[in-house]
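Hello,

I think I submitted the zinc ion job twice by accident. Can you confirm which output corresponds to this input? Input:
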Amino acid sequence: MKFGFGKIKDALKGVAEKEEREKEDEEEKREREISEAREVKEKMSESEQGPGTIEELNMEAKEPVKLNEPGSGPEPLAPADRTKAEKTGLIFFPAFDWAISPTHPEREERLLYTRDQIFEEGLMDLPQIAEYTPRLAGYKDIARVHFCVPDIKAQATTPHLIAAGSCLVLADALMVGEVKNAFALVRPPGHHAMTVAHGNRGFCNINNEAILVEYLRRKYGIRRIAIVDTDVHHGDGTQEIFYNDPDVLFISFHQDGRTLYPGSGFMNELGGPKALARTINIPLPPGTPDEGILYVLDSLVLPILRDFKPELVLNSAGQDNHYTDPLANMRFSAQGYARLNEKLAPDMAVLEGGYAIQSALPYVNTGIILAMAGLDYSCVREPDYTPGMFVQASRDRKVLDEIVATQLENWKNRDFLVEETVKGLGDFYHRKKQIFYDTDMIQEFQDETIKMCPDCQGYVTIDSHAHRSINDTRVFGVSVPIYACKNCQAEAREEYKKRIRDPVYEHVYLQDKKADEYRAYDMRTKKETVY
Amino acid sequence: MLIGIDVGGTTTDAVLIGNGEVYSTAKVATEPQNLLISLLTALDAVSGEIPPERIKRVVFSTTVITNLIAEGKTDHVALLLIPGPGLNPASYNFPDSFFLKGAMDYRGREIQALDEAEVRENVSRIRDLGFLRAAVVSKFGQRNPDHEFRVAEILEEMHPECKVELGHRVSGKLNFPRRVASTMFASATKEKYRAFVAEIKKALAERDIKAPVYILKADGGTLPLEKSTEFPVETIFSGPAASTIGALALTPEGQTSVVVDIGGTTTDLALILSGKPLMASRGAKLDAFLTQVRAFAVRSIAVGGDSAVRVAEAGEGKRTITVGPDRAGPAYCMGGPEPTPTDALRVLGLIEIGDPGRAKEAVASIASRIAKTESKDEGKDEGKDAGKDEDRLGADIEAEYDYDTRAETETACRIVDIATEMIASAVREMFLEWEQEPAYRIWEVLQKKKERPENVVGVGGGARGLIAGVAEKLNARPLIPEHAEVGNAIGAAVARPTLTLNLRIDTEQKVYSVAEEGEILSLNTTDISNFNKMRSEDAEALAAKLLRERAERFGISEYAGEAEITHSEVFNVVKGWLTAGRLFDVNMQIPAGLIPEWKRREKA
Ligand SMILES: [Zn+2]
Ligand SMILES: [Zn+2]
Ligand SMILES: [Zn+2]
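Support: Only one job matched these inputs. Its output is below.
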């Protein structure tokens, strides 16, 4: 099970190569289908459009887009001293008027009993809790993270903007020193949403934690952030967004991907070449109880965090590890969740999944709130819970031991791994990915390149093909990291200019986080939107 | 004719209204030790000349409950609490608590049975300790009161002389700690309040007044005196409620106003948003405890006409003027020991009361000390010791008498500016807080709450001269209505009844309950035939019907038509991808408002 250096390299290269071989034929076929489909679609939309079309078509001949010299964005604000803050900031946004569909797990009722419990407990009255009111995130906040297809409005509907906006309200409260920590008890969730957003994946459209991270970096100049994903599902969206970012440490606990959606999160997924071991996956055997998760926390997660010294720790706080969750098979309890948050002491927690809405959520959320507020949670327990009802199987304990040993070793060797890996690569690192959107039934193929820049983490380009039952979409996105070098920034912007002339794409995106400038070009209307 | 009486902390105000017009008013000093005497003196003062049969309605607002609680004169109550899982009950700061095993969940399902032996043990302890009152409150007792009922039965059996109050009867809203406090106060004040009501009735009988008598609640609604003995805590804070309703009665309909009641040392603020007084979102705070008592959102700040005005060191050799928070006595111009905002107002000619010479002296003393920023030893203990200041004031005045009037006017302006800014910023904070109230639904987030006061309404007898300054700062119109000094009594006289009804329906369990009544009833007793097909409209119709019945029981049927739905929501209870039932919550209220007799007059 142990992954020494050689194996990782194999894993990195091997997976990509294998995927490439498998998909080559398919790709060709798809490409034909797409171009045919596009022709049909273009004809249709042309006839739909009114007189305005002519003017816009004329624009094609001219230089469609002018890119000015990139600015460097506004100066970040200095975070305030939080050592004297005593309260836990809380936003409870249950979105009582929103559902994916009436009987979907992500429905109005999801946080109803949680509301009843936390209101009946009187938690909002406690002097240790400060309740905040949500706001909508701006499109620019979304554009900092996502390439939304066809546009932001289509992917980030009002409830999504409120869930993300709630995280930003709490981020501000935290950064100005009003609160010592904060919990965004909001829905809809976000941790399965990736950079390119074609639709809903695993109940998620936009990634709340990623939007929060980019906001904290841009507004407050935070650099090193650790995200610990404690949802039972692999936080594949968050992992993908920060895969090449050595400043963001992503650690995910989850039920082994061989037995649960989304089927990823294995130990060999360690991060891009320049960010190796900044992604740490912990695939847990089904049935792991409090004891096992807390063991991994103590012996692996906390030591790595101490070592990484992040400025902020975020908990991507799913509650579907619970022993009653209908979508997974773990055996975590409310006491376990409270203990985990007490030990992890995240600066901020953001609710993710958790679908045992009656038997788990009211108790788990009460436990987490009390633990974060530093209050006594010993009396929080589920009606059918008795301490010691779940015992760690000794065979599973061995699995955990192996995970801890392997990942500690990877972590210890991270700089060496990066050095050795980058040495063998050219100017660009290529990766092919295949992404499935379970809710919206979209199959996406991606071609990703990362500039192997000696001066920074390098800019990223994504060429994405989305196949739906009736139509296909191809888009291209360029992303400039916030701490990118000037050369990468200039090169990336050139790449954007070049691609907007290529009719093979329906949409082309520029995400210049360094300049805090975001552009989306619509090939059909020849219109550019700037955020 | 209508009579309104407000027994306030310092004065008791009364008003007699006939044909929608103020007939006569009275103001008498409140005797804190005997509120009844104050009340009756004021009553006699306004009603003395008219025959008792012409009186059609009498409404009191009283601080009797507030005083009982503040002075610790309430009765001891044993709290029998059934907290179930959640917050550690050891963290509660309630007195005389006895914790019992047993638990209900959020849908009223029993998750842990009562331990009857434990209940009996505790009841015998309570008996041995001599408690004669007990409050029984269980978490989620409003969703299923069985445990509260059973404990009450055991109390009745083992300790029959003990008077028992049940949590679910006091409030049906979610919030166990607030319900415990509310139930505790309900139990602790009931007997004494009842005695007070009996005395009022006796006194009215002696005066041959047979008109219906009401008591004003903290939510600005009236409650028949007889009925009020069941809900004594609802009468707390009825003073600010009276002023607010008074302001409502004296300002144009439907406008947004801030009601400013400037007293000697404090200023009370309340908001009227588009003609509706703003309620405290979760209930009033009473003593050290948060309760579920419906009350207007009022804020009291420590600045008033008699607040001590002093000069304080602001560092780097600079000095500033401070206003309050304490009061050294009456205004200097009224013979008091220290300068006050009232003196500044007098100097500026904004009020006519008090001796202008003394007012000038008071302001001059502040002007001279603020000017002499160089002499450091003088400033050291300034503004700290009221007694010392008094001596110094005389000396300073002599030395600085030549100070030109411009300096005095400027200083007076600054004092007024500071005081009005304190009030205005508190108003801004109140609006901000209201805007920042949490939102749990998309539409609530999208609904942009942005209202600013059109009027700053001055009520009460306090420093009226400050109203214009506050209004200017808030970019609003200053309004001091006729009879504003007895606005509180007018508010009491013209307030109409309020009533709430919170209906919850659980079609899966086939039950419904009205939070205010505390009974869980079978849906089979309603005329709803197919529970599974029940829609919001059906739930709302049932709520309206129950509200009408409730209004009838309260003797206020004529106001049932004013009832409005404040909130209505429905949730599908889904089990394994199928809808197993529905949960409905419908909240209705007859909101605070004015009786038609007054409205009619206003329109005429
Ligand atoms: Zn996870
Ligand atoms: Zn999940
Ligand atoms: Zn670079």
